[in-house]
Description:
Elements: H1 2-15, H2 18-25, H3 30-38, E1 42-46, E2 52-56, H4 61-65, H5 74-83, E3 89-93, H6 99-108, E4 113-117, H7 121-134, E5 139-142, E6 145-146, E7 151-156, E8 165-166, E9 179-185, H8 187-193, E10 201-204, H9 210-215, H10 218-223, E11 227-231, H11 241-249, E12 252-256, H12 257-262, E13 279-284
Parallel strand pairs: 3-4, 3-10, 4-5, 6-9, 10-11
Antiparallel strand pairs: 1-2, 7-8, 7-9, 11-13, 12-13
Amino acid sequence: MIRLFFGLINRLGKRLPKRAQRAIADFPGVLTLLGKISSGVVEEIVTPEGYSLEINTLFHSNLVRNGSLAGYESDVRRAITRLTRPGFTAYDIGANVGIFSFLFLSLVGPQGHVYAFEPEPNNGECLGHSIAKAAAENITLDTRAVGDKVNTAMFDRRGGAFSGRLISDNAKYNPTDNIIEVKTVTLDKLVDDENYQLPDIMKIDVEGNEVLVLSGMANIFAKNPPIIICELHSHLGDSVDKIAVILKKYKYHIYAIADFLNVPMSELKEISSLKGVRHVVAIPA
């Protein structure tokens, strides 16, 4: 009965404009209520690599509607596949339910390791179950938010399960009322004090907190600068100029992901500005 109810909600939701969908999800208390009544009501979808992902029937219904995960953010998938090697240590920062975490896992092989970071409670719960079901010892879930400080911070669960972010000091960002407190950690802290392996490659999708992530990994940049595949979120009011400054400081070559995937290496040119670009591939010199 509950599945039929959620199915009705999902069908009604599809008929609403995205602005209206977000307004409903962001209304105070809605996510908490829906999270309680949908807890344990799950479905399973299989990744192109053959891993079974647990998803919340209500919050992740768009993944079911996609039919196949092979087309989910296909450029990011192609970049990860091209750049990841067996034995790599991969960081999936903003892992959601683990679509790319398990892609990384299939590519790094038994000698590599994957660290999946996901602070949003519904996503983290589903991903934890999927990891347990996979019974792989070389993938680690960390439910702390990656930032520039080891502390606690306010996390905005904006728009449901796919758009959560830390509330930073960006004056242009207007938070919703769906706020929870989460623990935060820096990548340097994890490597220096918690014995996490240095990353060889990382995917960053943190809804505008990219500068916070990059600012908390100065020691990693100095020791072993990783390949970075990063989604930019200037549409939320965040400046991409600071991202470029940090990456250039550490001598990265920065490419628009479409250019990197489709232009021959002999003709590939770095981008001069990140404005208007949604995904970048950054390669250490």
